[in-house]
Design a protein that fits this description.
63% helix, Fic-like fold, 350 residues, Arc Repressor Mutant, subunit A, mainly alpha, two-stranded antiparallel sheet, 4 strands
């Protein structure tokens, strides 16, 4: 028995791959500050950890996830939810170290990723790092209906061996498609009692990173899935309904990655424009305090005097004088939300 995925590269997949390559090229060439990249990498990790665990049933808000990953104890957060979140960070750090070593993806690696993701969660019932020895099922949470029966446990070791062998030998398939296939196949085999989805999504990320598609580690694919979990599950299930043809899943996967990369590209583009504007403002003689106000407005899009005062800790009278200067220099405009709303906002003129 061997693993040989079947799929057709459609026009939709080709278009998505083209958008992904453009985003990759843009980020590789973009002049982004190391501080901004580092800050956004932390944010991307928070988002991925939050959404990949949220898909599996955690109840944390994004704010709670951010605080927990920042080392805070959040009152009211379920211990298992917090542990799953922190486990993801540990598994991600492990994958990062593994990448630096430049080693191949192995069954041992996949099992170790799983172990780090599920250790200590839900009474350790997920058998961390061990292939399942029982039959499990995928059930519709709303109806209780069985929607997928994974392969029998006796078939799991051979299927995993064949899958990993394919990962090692395949050199012709586009790396982005390999990442999508890897994610589906691990979910399909469902080799573990629990934690298969999280393991598959992190494996997919590893496949992308390993082949040069790390996009500066600024993207978060699970956010796309979590926005519409029904569409995510349907994309996986459709493969089985179509005789294991992966085309529909790869359409979904590549369009999702392209959408996420577009968001990163737009954000990075705003940062580049902000840096150009600030550099010109400095060259024109603007001092540090007005520069800080302009930078804040370029980041937020718009803000009231009160919001600027709170964020920048600047005396209101001084702040109003600086804002007037920015308006006079044509860098900022004052606007109202509507004729009936007296609130005044300041926004940058890009």
């Amino acid at each position: 028995m061997s693993f040989s995925p079947r799929f057709t590269i459609t026009n939709t997949i080709t278009a998505a791959l083209t958008r992904i390559e453009r985003a990759r090229g843009f980020l590789d060439a973009a002049k982004l500050s190391k501080d901004w990249i580092s800050k956004m990498q932390v944010r991307a990790l928070v988002l991925e950890a939050h959404h990949t665990t949220h898909i599996e049933g955690t109840h944390l808000t994004l704010e709670q996830s951010e605080r927990i990953l920042g080392g805070e104890k959040v009152q009211g957060a379920r211990p298992d939810d917090a542990r799953e979140l922190l486990n993801y960070k540990k598994a991600f750090d492990f994958v990062s170290d593994y990448l630096e070593a430049g080693e191949l993806i192995t069954e041992g690696l996949i099992r170790e990723i799983h172990k780090r993701l599920v250790t200590g969660v839900r009474g350790n019932k997920a058998a961390p790092g061990e292939y399942r020895k029982v039959q499990n099922y995928i059930v519709n949470e709303r109806t209780g209906e069985k929607i997928y029966t994974p392969p029998p446990p006796l078939e799991v070791p051979q299927m995993m061996a064949d899958f990993v062998a394919w990962l090692k030998r395949d050199t012709e398939t586009n790396p982005v498609l390999v990442a999508g296939i890897a994610q589906f196949q691990l979910v399909h085999i469902h080799p573990f009692v629990d934690g298969n989805g999280r393991t598959a999504r992190l494996l997919s990320t590893l496949c992308l990173y390993k082949t040069g598609y790390d996009f500066k580690r600024l993207f978060t694919i699970s956010e796309y899935y979590d926005r519409d979990r029904t569409a995510y599950y349907e994309a996986l299930q459709t493969v089985r309904e179509r005789g294991m043809d992966l085309t529909s899943w790869l359409v979904y996967f590549t369009e999702g990655l392209a959408a996420q990369m577009r968001e990163v590209q737009v954000t990075a583009g705003h940062v580049i424009r902000r840096d150009v504007i600030l550099a010109k403002a400095r060259k024109d003689g603007l001092k540090d305090r007005p520069i800080a106000i302009l930078s804040f407005l370029l980041t937020t899009g718009k803000a009231t005097v009160a919001e600027c005062e709170t964020e920048l800790k600047v005396n209101r009278r001084t702040l109003q004088r600086d804002l007037k200067l920015l308006v006079e220099k044509g860098l900022v405009s004052q606007v109202s939300t509507s004729p009936t709303d007296p609130t005044k906002f300041y926004q940058p003129l890009l």
